Amino acid sequence: MGSLPSPGGHLVASTIDLRDLGVLFETQQRHLNHFFDNLDLGQAQAFAQALIDAPGAVFFSGIGKSGFVAHKLSQTLASLGFTRSSYLPPVDALHGDIGSLFPSDLLVLISKSGSSDELLKLVPCARAKGARLISITSVQSNPLAALCDMNVHLPLEKEACPFGLAPVTSTAIQMVFGDTIVAAIMRVRKLTKEQYARNHPAGKIGKSLIFKVKDLMKKREDLPLCKEGDMIMDQLTELTSKGCGCLLVINAENRLIGTFTDGDLRRTLKSNGEGIFKLTVGEMCNRNPRTITPEAMAVEAMQKIESPPSAVQFLPVVDDQKVVIGIITLHGLVSAGL
């Protein structure tokens, strides 16, 4: 059993008790259920509508742990691409950052108690700038709510902290509430995957929705091409030099006949021995390979590469006439972040 020094310098047990942990999760679940059971959906609807109808930017602000939630929600809303949204630190706002706030803007103030001095000091300054103010709080009849144009009450039964003090439940319901409101906005604005991806170009989400096969495939000059009448042994250089581990077997019109891989080479050599010198690529190639079109999404290529009965390392890229125009490899997809 491990031990850690207490604030007073004494060693205390540091092993998590499974039953105690279970009780804590049950307690948190009960507190979250209280929130869901008692939330005023009318207030939630009014808040969501205010965000949708905001003529200017939407700023979020909060102090402490509520500030982290405010920062996250502002980023999430901004990522939709419908509304300019940003986090306004309350202390920095009082030292110049409030200059970014304009009369058409909306300021959302998140606070468990509604009594944070930093937010209360910010309110008259934001009011003087002409912004509309909305508070999100969990204590009834708090001073912040009284000063704002709208208040959303998030029902909080109790913090799951052993002392009932640390914001481990209040911040959870703040985040759940805010993210659910954002999801509602996504639905009412009919946000498409393509629109969402445009604002996430560097992440896996964006890459899976933006990149097409044609963006990642090897093109004609880099393709390991051969004809079906070519001798296998004459094509070893082509098989190994293009970094694809395969040959794309084509006819005179550049239409795909089949594929021949380095694995096929090993199996052919094992079964035919010296007879391999007399074999053509066309005699041993796979005439029913998986293929994909250049306009298909790259994520579809990854799915096809990994699909049963067994994964493959590449897909020939062909047009609707089966003319070979490229090849996309597992290595290329992984390197692109998919």
From TrEMBL:
Q: Does the keyword Repeat apply?
A: yes
* UniProt KW keywords: CBS domain, Repeat
Domain SIS intervals = 47-191
Which InterPro entries does this chain map to? CBS_dom, CBS_dom_sf, KdsD/KpsF-type, SIS_dom, SIS_dom_sf, SIS_Kpsf
Query: This protein is called what?
Result: Arabinose 5-phosphate isomerase
Provide the CBS domain boundaries: 217-279, 285-338
User: Carries keyword Hydrolase?
Assistant: no
The entry lists its GO molecular-function terms as:
carbohydrate derivative binding; isomerase activity
Q: Which family does it belong to?
A: Belongs to the SIS family. GutQ/KpsF subfamily.
Q: Give the originating organism.
A: Dendrobium nobile (Orchid)
Q: Which domain of life is it from?
A: Eukaryota
Record-marked site positions (Catalytically relevant): 65, 118, 159, 200
What Gene Ontology biological process does one annotation of this record name?
Answer: carbohydrate metabolic process
